[in-house]
Write a structure and sequence with these properties.
By secondary structure, this protein is α/β, with parallel strands linked by helices. Helix content is 47%, strand content 28%.
């Protein structure tokens, strides 16, 4: 029975190795649509911070900072970094150009409560200062933090003996609550008003609990990084964003697949297609199915999503390529996303 079990294990390992060796992967940049669509006449935006409290609330915030163990001005710095994180994210995308208005004396509540909307004269002045079509205001900013401590035990050989080794961890969780308004200066209306909670986790580890704590960033530094993160996350809500993704394709052992792989590595999809297409009707199912699958990948790379779906359907229905089924769903999502992107980018 042991020999049978061993044989089955070896067969499974061989199948896994063959499967993993049969494919290769490529990295691609995919543009995903924003959660909401901003009117097309808004092309340039000004970003400013209004989350800081006025003088009457400063003492309360200082006391709160001392009680919670945060740096006194941690949220002040964090909110500035939140605005800068948004600006950097918007400028890295294809939809907006953004400018950060530093030094604007705009006071808010200093809490999670939204202040009254800014008056339109002030909105107009701020927009005109950088020739912007809209003003994006960080109306509220608040952070809190917590630490979770735990340990993990692993085995390690020391002088030929197996011993238990304990590693200690400390997770610093920073929760940022940021409230935003978008003021359309052309039509004098607020087109979006929402608060969002984003969490960023920092992990320290060490051979003792204190060393794990020592390997954490300071809370002030962590809040600054979390502010940038929260600003970037809001950028994804209002602007199409580039993300990194990967796609697998079949390289095979046959000479044609090996040759096509070289063209894929050169990003020459036309030459790869010229090799794969004649193989799509190959009587050997493995070759025909892989060629159809690869044709679908190539069509996606060239932006021909509908054609890519047709090739993947052929791979799935004609050759029973099970991986093609999930790829079809992915492509259908990209087709829907393209419709939204065309709307958001004015194509």
């Amino acid at each position: 029975m042991k020999k049978v079990h061993l044989s089955l294990f070896l067969i499974a390992c061989t199948a896994w190795l063959f499967s993993s060796c049969a494919t290769s992967s490529i990295g691609i940049q995919v543009l995903v649509p924003a959660d909401i669509s901003i009117p097309q006449h808004i092309q340039k935006v000004a970003v400013a911070n209004r989350s800081l409290p006025d003088k009457s609330d400063k003492a309360k915030n200082i006391i709160e900072g001392l009680l919670t163990g945060e740096s006194i001005y941690a949220d002040r710095e964090g909110s500035e970094n939140c605005g800068l994180g948004l600006v950097n994210h918007l400028n890295s995308g294809p939809r907006f150009s953004a400018s950060y208005l530093s030094g604007t004396d705009l006071k808010g509540t200093g809490t999670r409560e939204f202040p009254y909307p800014l008056d339109w004269n002030t909105v107009n002045e701020l927009c005109q200062s950088v020739d912007a079509d809209a003003l994006v205001l960080l109306e509220t900013f608040d952070s809190d933090n917590s630490i979770r401590k735990y340990n993990k035990v692993s085995k390690k050989k020391v002088e030929s003996k197996e011993v238990n080794v304990t590693t200690y961890y400390a997770d610093l969780n920073i929760n940022v609550n940021a409230g935003w308004r978008i003021y359309d200066n052309t039509n004098k209306r607020i087109i979006d008003e929402q608060s969002f909670m984003d969490t960023k986790v920092f992990t320290g580890k060490g051979t003792t609990p204190s060393r794990a704590d020592d390997n954490l960033p300071s809370k002030r530094n962590a809040i600054n990084q979390s502010g940038v993160f929260a600003g970037s996350m809001f950028g994804k809500r209002i602007s199409p964003t580039w993300i990194h993704a990967s796609r697998k394709y079949y390289k095979g052992k046959e000479d044609q697949f090996k040759k096509a792989k070289k063209y894929v590595e050169l990003n020459d999809w036309d030459e790869a297609i010229a090799i794969w297409k004649p193989l799509t009707d190959n009587p050997e199912k493995k070759i025909g199915g892989r060629a159809c699958y690869n044709m679908g990948v190539a069509c996606e790379m060239q932006g021909e999503f509908n054609m890519a779906v047709e090739w993947m359907k052929k791979a799935f229905y004609n050759y029973n390529m099970k991986d093609a089924k999930s790829y079809i769903s992915l492509l259908e999502n990209r087709i829907r996303d393209k419709e939204r992107l065309d709307e958001q980018l004015g194509n």
